[in-house]
Structures are given as C-alpha cells and as structure tokens.
Amino acid sequence: MGMTWFVIYLSHFSHASKNTLIGLMKMQFYVYIGLQLNAATPATPAITTAQQQQQDNVGPTSLDVHWKAALSMHDIMHRWPKVTVTATLQCAGNRRDGLAAVREVKGVIWKSGAVSTATWSGPRLCDILNDVADIPKEKLHKLLRDYHVSFEADDHVHEDVCYGSSIPFRKVMDPLGDVILAYEMNGKPLAREHGYPIRVIVPGYIGARSVKFLQKIVIQPKESTSFFQRRDYKILDTTIDHTNVEKAWDSAASLGEMNVQCVICTPSEQEAIHASNPVTIKGYAIS
After folding, report:
1. Which member of 55, 100, 223, 252 has the lowest number of beta carbons within 10 Å of its beta carbon?
2. Per-residue pLDDT tens digits for 141-164
3. Long-range contacts made by residues 16-23, C-beta under 8 angstroms, separation at least 24?
4. What are the tens digits of pLDDT across the range 244-286?
5. Does a cis peptide bond (omega within 30 degrees of 0) precede residue 45?
6. Distances from the Cα of 276 to the Cαs of 222, 271, 273, 279, 280, in angstroms?
C-alpha cells in the first residue's frame, strides 16, 4: 500500500470557528497542527498531541511524526512568490450538443460557450510543496510517476460529502504546469461564485479539476475517491448505457488534459450570409 505523503487543510475566512489544519499523514498515523485563520494577521499554531486526541476523541491514539508545519492564509498570500497566470477554463461538457446530435447523453447540452479566460494570481503549488513537504529525493521519482494530488472543497453536494477531484502529482510539480492556489481573479479577490477565498487553478485540464472553496490538499497513491473523479467526467464506450454503466466506471479513464478545441462562433451554424458582403469570422482555439 502506498503512503499518503502530505495533507493540507484550509478553512474559509467566513468560517472563523473552524480550524485550519496542516500536517503529514503517514499510513494510519496522523499529526494535526491546527490554527485559526484570520484575514488580517498570521495565526498561531496549536499542536494537538496524541494524548489530547485520545481524551478529545478527535483522532488516532498513536502518533508518528515524520514532518509537521502550520500555514495560515497569510503564509499563502505572502510567503511564496505571487504569480499571475492567464488560463482558460472549459467545462468538460463544452460542445456536448455535438454528442447529443449522435445519441442521447447525460448532462447540460452545452453549445460552445461553456468556456472562459481570466488572469489568476497566487503561489505555485509546486513552490509550496518544494518548501514545506519535505519529500525525500529518493522517493520523488516514484511520486512523480505514480502519485496524485487530491483537492477537496468546502462545498456540500448531494452526490458526495463534498466536491473533490485530483490531478497527477507530476502536473503539480512541473513549474511550467502553472498549477497555482489562486486568491485573485483579474486582479481582484476571488468572488464567492469563483471559489472565495482560495481555489486551485489547473491550466490545460478540464474545469472540474480547478476545485473551488479549497479546504484540503492530499498527495496520495491513487486518484481522488470523490464521486466527481470516479463516477463523473469520464468518456464511456459507445456500448455503455444506463443499464450497464456501473460496471464500466472503474475501467474508464478520468478526463484530465483538454484536447485541442477550435470553434467558429460566428457566423453560427446554418446562418445565411451574402456572398457579396465581407464576412468576419470569430471563434477561439485552445489546448
């Protein structure tokens, strides 16, 4: 069984009663380092001991501390370089109307407009992990080859306990991959609908992997167990329908990197144009 190397817990500014926890989880042994998030001032870490865990019934009774640290939102906003990335996020179902024209499909029948581009600002996740995760060099190759980074949202949904997703560890650790923890969009603090106070931005991947309302990050040997990783955002074989889909989920690959997309938005399909007049063609191409 693979080891879970690293866990980060974050909390929203709006939920001041919650603790932010950050630490290393090693098999069945945990270390919890809690701190109160405050938008204006750094928080003071409060380490929970194994004895306190036993008394309070809040966690395992044995503790194997490999690495520990505590981070506040102040750290995230000021400890590492702030970078600005221009990224286009696209719903995995963008242009689903083309599939629906062939056969019945589940989901919103998007045309070509479930896509947008913005500038996002925050630290690179690889900078944070290189600084604090303390991953032994001899283990790095295996992690880059086999491991995943899971993101969990403080966002309650009817399909699961919360929204979650994951991407390969190698994508996160690639400095050219531009995976960031964004707290600004277009030069302003994130709005609630865009994931306030912090979200992950994963350029080049389907929008479902850029998790909003981020509260937890885990480096782990398998993909996220979230419904939205295991039972959604997959392309199934044409022989699969609602009668046999449950047998197909686990063997179908999760969607990650976007394919190249080229779309002509105007003129629209079947729009009449006059051959004697100049025609301006507008659209987009992304990858």
Report:
1. 55
2. 888 999 999 999 988 887 778 999
3. 19/46, 20/71, 20/72, 20/73, 22/69, 22/70, 22/71, 23/67, 23/68, 23/69
4. 888 888 888 889 999 898 999 999 888 998 889 899 999 999 8
5. no
6. 59, 15, 9, 9, 13
Q: How far is CA 214 from the centre of its chain?
A: 8
Give, in order, the Cα–Cα distances in Å from 71 to each of 43, 79, 114, 158, 183.
Answer: 8, 10, 35, 31, 15
How many angstroms separate the CA atoms of 260 and 171, rounded? Answer: 18
Tokens of 127: 């900078």
In this prediction the pTM is 0.77
Question: For the chain, what is the largest distance between any 2 Cα atoms, rounded to a whole number of angstroms?
Answer: 83
Q: Give CA–CA dist 92/89, Å, rounded.
A: 9
When pLDDT is cut at 50, 70 and 90, the band that residue 191 belongs to is: very high
Radius of gyration, CA atoms only, the chain: 22
Residue 108 CB neighbours (<10 A) = 11
The residue assigned the tokens 């969009």 is 185
CB 4 within 8 A of CB 219: yes
Question: Contact at 8 Å (CB) between 6 and 129?
Answer: yes
